[in-house]
Amino acid sequence: MNDYPVIKFTILFAAGILIQHLFNVDIRIFYFFLITLTAYGLLLFKRILQHFPLTNQIILFVLIVLFGMSTATLNKNTTKELPGNVIHKKNTITYGKIVGINLIQKDKLIFEIQTDSIITSNIKVLSPYILKGTLKEKRGILLKFYNSIYPGYKLKITRPIYNARDKRNPGEFNYKEYLRTKGISGTINLNKIDQIKITGIDKDYFKSFIFNIRKEIAKEIDKLYSSQTSALLKGLLLADRSNISYSTKEEFINAGVIHILAVSGLHVGFISLIVIILLGRINLFVRSGLTIIALFLFLFITGVPPSVVRAVIMGTVIILSFMFVRGTNLFNSLALAAFIILIIKPSQLFTPGFQLSFSAVWGIAVFYPLFTEIISKKNIKSKTIEYILLFSSVSLGAQIGTLPFTLIYFG
Questions:
Q1: CA spacing 20 to 30 A to 339: which of 187, 240, 307, 386?
Q2: Average pLDDT, whole number, for the chain?
Q3: What pLDDT, in 10s, does the model give residues 324-378?
Q4: 380-411 per-position pLDDT tens digit
């Protein structure tokens, strides 16, 4: 393990996150213990510690675990519960600004609003909350409103606010908790355009720029292809699966390729490969830099979903490692990517996407070289068959790596 320092660090850091998640420890006790122990060791046992490196390692390990626990504590989900006296109240007026807009669907538009104030008949709430708004209207009216708004625009909404449905039966999906992980405290459902008004313009230029790109790409796809094909393309290119029919999703599930519709590491890998092939004759540093730029452009165009964020961070770390570190190790690069993701959002450790993404890459890194060696020893005459076997080895390595989590989540 001496060759894998980042792996050891990341494992201990993740262990700290796990401990804090399971036991919700008051880490102030541990900090007192750690400071006392460290001061005692430095002041009184400096010479002894030099002769007992194991003691140094134990102190360092405890420090890293505490770092993980601290990070988990500081990054706990702070999504606030809406006050009970503003829930399901008639004549509620909500003022706020748009912080996110989904691509328009056939019969509805979904957006997110950060509240400035919530006013009911007997209370005024000034604390900021993120609410998910859903507007259902005739297509023409919906399209006109969709083309008139941008992130940052200020709105006045006259509709009741609701809590999302929580888990009411064992095994049931907890929609309320799902929204909380996205920072959303409640929902507003609108069925008439006169229930929502634009009251001011404070445009978020960066978000508006990205939104415009997404909107224009979606518009061109809709012009060029049938509704079914355009729905699939928007799912693959823009991470918008809202218009894909249930029957189409069922067909993908039955074929065992539903993961293709989830924009993630697979698509990021394809983009990296395409850019590298197209720029194959260019200097390594320029080629790598342009590949990273392409990855981040794809990240923003897809709306910055967590799965693509994970994949782009992972891809960027691996590319930079091969650029600047001689004799770089894929496992160290993988661990560094995991650490960056976990320090930004520790709760990712417990998501199936994080676990499946990293276990898949780990499986490929471990088993693909073994399969390649076996295939090369077989002296296969047909290059086509050899390429098919090598390609299949990548998939098999990923499946072996993800097998434990696949069994846990999908039986």
A1: 240
A2: 86
A3: 766 567 888 889 889 999 999 998 898 877 888 888 889 988 999 999 999 988 8
A4: 888 888 888 988 888 888 889 888 887 887 66
Same domain membership, residue 186 and residue 287: no
CA distance 154 to 147: 15
At 283, list the tokens: 């200097």
Last residue of a domain, one of 208, 224, 251: 208
User: Cα 205–135–175 angle (5° rounding)?
Assistant: 95
Quickly count helices (H) and strands (E) in the chain: 15, 7
Query: Taking Cα atoms as reference points, which of 279, 281, 247, 239 lies closest to residue 263?
Result: 239
What stretches of 279-329 show up as alpha helix (H) in DSSP? 284-301, 306-324
Give the end of a domain, one of 191, 208, 225: 208
Whole-number pLDDT of residue 44:
54
What is d(CA 128, CA 94) in angstroms, rounded to the nearest whole number? 11
Q: Is position 221 within any domain?
A: no
Residues in the chain: 411
Helices (H), 75-138: none
Collapse the DSSP code of 102 into the 3-class scheme (helix H, G, I; strand E, B; otherwise coil) and give the result. coil
Q: Which domain holds residue 52?
A: 5-74
Residue 93 shares a structural domain with residue 194: yes
Task: Give the type of residue at 367.
Answer: F
Sign, CA dihedral 62-68-74-77, equals negative
Mean pLDDT value across residues 277-306: 88
pTM of the model: 0.77
Q: Flag whether pLDDT at 232 surpasses 60.
A: yes
